[in-house]
Records
---
Amino acid sequence: MLRLFPGQPEEVAVAGAYLSHRLHELGSEASPFVYASFVSSLDGRIALRDPATGESRLPAGLVSDTDFRLFLELQAQADCLITHGGYLRDLAAGRLDDVLQVGMQKAANGLARWRADNGLPPQPVVVVASASLEFPMPDSLARHGQRVFIATGAAAPPERVAHWRAAGYEVLIAGAGQSVEGAALLRELDMRGLRSLYLLAGPRMLDTMLRDGRLSRLYLTTAHRLLGGESFHSMLAGSELGKAGRLRLGALHYDSGTLDGTGQFFAHFEPWAHGPEL
């Protein structure tokens, strides 16, 4: 793929492109490094929703081997993966693949060894964020010996909190209402020594991390196509972010190697903490 920014344009290999960011080294006790990634169409769709069933799906037009490899490289650098109950429900229903372990996919060639060589445990910790606490726990987490936390708000259903605690899981209260709040969740995870946190939890978690000023970096793949559709998901669905949504470009790459030839951009952004007032 072609690096367009920063510096002069230059061809770079896909394999290792995101590993070179050394995300696992950027967090500290005072400030965990929190990063998220999304793949989007040019018209801002990250998923389409079936109006009849309410089920969401990732359109084939947003899927590419290059994006998946780079996703796995981001996953490999995490102390902790933060997912949500909706993903676990979709996983149990067979609508999504299990991406909660490093090195399990064919495209993950070398990533398990990379973790070992860089002093990381074989698999990351997993945090499940949920307001309802209604989800199935996948067997793969216990099979791979992963530590699991369940995060929810103080107003979560007490019987569901008791259910998960009785099942042996540590439930973190990370928010004043039912939903998880970014700053409160990071305080809990920081106390447990987790420094590199990869958000797989979708728009709601991205929103709270931005509003609480806790997002360190956003990775965005933009597929060069328009999807349309009247019912869809985008990266954010809440009220206006204002200054909390200001980002600055860290890098931009272009890949023309997708199967249908339309191409895609790979970019990452960081909060523009010291930019001019708007």
---
Amino acid sequence: MSGIANTIARSGGSQPERPPKASAPALGALQGSLASIREIDPNLIDDWGPVDRLEEFTAVNVEDDESFERLKSSIREGGQQVPILVRRSKVAEGRFEAIYGRRRLKACRELGIKVRANVQDVDDATALLAKGLENAARRNLSFYEKARFAEAIQNAGHDGATVRQVLNLSASGQSHLTKVTQNVPVKIGDLIGAAPKSGRPRWTELAELFLSRKLTERTALDILAKIRATSNSDERLELLIKEATKRGAKNSRETREITPIEGVTIKAGRATLSLSVKKSGANAEFATWLESNLAEIIKQSYAEFTDINSVDDN
């Protein structure tokens, strides 16, 4: 266990951030000795921490169902080859918390057999890093799974630096993930699924459709409801983007006008975007201030835009 513990210790304090490498030795440090491997009743093990994969809670997920059945058959016929990682529960005596290996745990539970588990006493930070390393070593998360996992880590109270360390992200890579989770409704993401073959560009395109209000949650639900049930998650994403783009093109023929505050009007048409601010009335002083600062505001906004949309598929 010392390998991962040392990695976290080195990354703390004022030292520069060094994202962990998902190497076999690093995982081996937490896989521990044979003495730490036990056979445990699956009903004594509870889930812990942020959900890292969509397959456990995606509403429509035919391909993941098939993958799980193959895993269960493999364990039934050849036994569980790779232990899951657990720690002793902090709230219930005699119980455990699963850090990673939810699918193996579920398979053993459904088969009615004990699960082989590596029992380690680790804190939350070490457990999160172990989860991230295990994902990288076994099957990489899809772009959208990374986005939801990053959001779940932060919702659990951890900061952005922890997210970047666990998922081995750059700052701009994290921004790409955040853009998607902030704009694509959770219900829509659940219905689409992990989309393992679809990377940042397609998910960002979907996020832009919601951000520009060319697509609403209600409309997206209607579109997804009409997609055949046998479509996989990548096909659902593609079909949703295609239909939403088609509808957005029809709506874009009209000029849209927005008044965010009194005296300020934004007009968006097919070819231009314009801003007008009245120099009289309640916000006359704001108009004067904006005139002096608008050029700098646009430069700063453009710099943020180019940073977030730089070529970085993390």
---
Amino acid sequence: MSAIRVPSAKIALSTASVYPERTPDAFELAQRLGYDGVEIMVGQDPVSQDVEVLQRLVDHYQMPILAVHAPCLLVTQRVWGRDPWLKLQRARRAAERLGARTVVVHPPFRWQRDYAKDFEVGLARMREETDVVFAVENMFPLRARGNEVVPYAPGWSPVDYDFPDVTLDLSHTAVSGSDAMEMAAKLGDRLAHLHLADGVGTTNKDEHLVPGRGNQPCAQMLHRLASNGYDGLVVLEINTRRAAGRSERIDDLAEALAFARRHLAAPGRR
């Protein structure tokens, strides 16, 4: 007889999902809507960089920080200094202090030659020093005039490398034109973290749509994870910056959470 089995995976809200609102607003909305916790996108907002302030937000809203996204974006190149290894070390310390289990990290940019050359070895060394998981995220190539440019080294997809823990981002699979389900199958147990968002594959546009509004297999991915007993995090990382107002943003965040909860409930046997 079929039954509904709710897996142990928690559903978190990325603080990036409330932009242009700020980090404290993400805590408030995550609590109001019933998320299990938040993922901190360390960025230009000073609050996202301050462990002491973040801990006060955790205590005030009773909303745990489940992951820390290291400042790896072009726009955060100067956040926490310029040295990429020091950024990761600081992200790790923040995760340890705040009780987060995962640090999300992007592959190095090609111009970060020393960092890129030692990336795999350096991550392996850091893993030996902590219980925090470093989950390398899939990115995407850029296309112009029929040519493909890969701004990352050793590459934009961690699937083909020996990283033991990977973040799979479904908005990024849309941009790269990847088969997300095939990537998940190849990753197997290495899939430690999911950025749940949607996209339609617009060239060079990382859309981060509410799940169900694009063409990515968001529902199928959640079904697969639930059926496999996935115990990593599912993080809603969606773009609400074009919302007409706060009410529309809240509606989008609520819709995204409802989608994740509905499809993460997998049929089991009893």
---
Amino acid sequence: MTRLLLRSRVFALEALSSGLHGIRIDPCCTALRDYLVLQMGSLPDEQLRVLFLDAGGHLIADEQLQHGTLTRLALYPRTIFRRALELNAGGIILVHNHPSRDPTPSDHDIAVTRLLDRIGRELDIKLVDHIIVTECGTRHIRTSGAATKLERGTLQQLRSPGPAERGKIALENAKATLRRRLLRDQLFGAPELFGDPAWEMLIDIFIHECEGEPLPLSSLCVTPSIPMSSALRLCRKLCAAGIVDRIPDPGDGRRSFVRLTPETAHRMRAYFEEGRG
């Protein structure tokens, strides 16, 4: 009986998978949802799949790129986009499962979505959606609005500020700097040679503060191209040096936010108002 059930599952997966080829993929369509739930919904541990799409939104490839836990995903954006470039993909759909059966996206899920969207836009590869799968259904981070707002547009050049818009120009210059650093990492790799993790973290905090958005520590630690544990140690060093502050979340004792000290914020604003990168 077990063997029969397994064979039936394989046939069902093949049928659902074949139905996705040759059509324009809608991340919210029933066919895709049924396929993902059957494929990943009951798995005992987390897996990451990426659906690679052509410019017209048709499926090029469906590949499992990671097995284990999404908390390490921040280390592998280069793997995802390198494969997308190899396939000449115009878009990707990121998919991972929650064995806990709770489809609610974590702070880290949302931070990863923001990071991959940011990198993809600079490589002209659209992050169409990020889908969380459980045995009961799916949750869409981008289409559900769970992700924080993501800025749009092409890579901006740094420019000198005008007297009436210094704050706005500082923010735009900081965003452009961070995008250029992310694009550099994707083009050249070897973050240990080109990386500047502390500076990237400070820029990310500065951008969030300019936009009035609190930045959880877990989200900050996916910004630099270093392991999460190394990013946490680096954040502690920045706190010890009086460059940033770590603030407990009064509504969730397990979470904390990071912010620039007033002196650091003033200096970074002056730095980016001058159009520096």
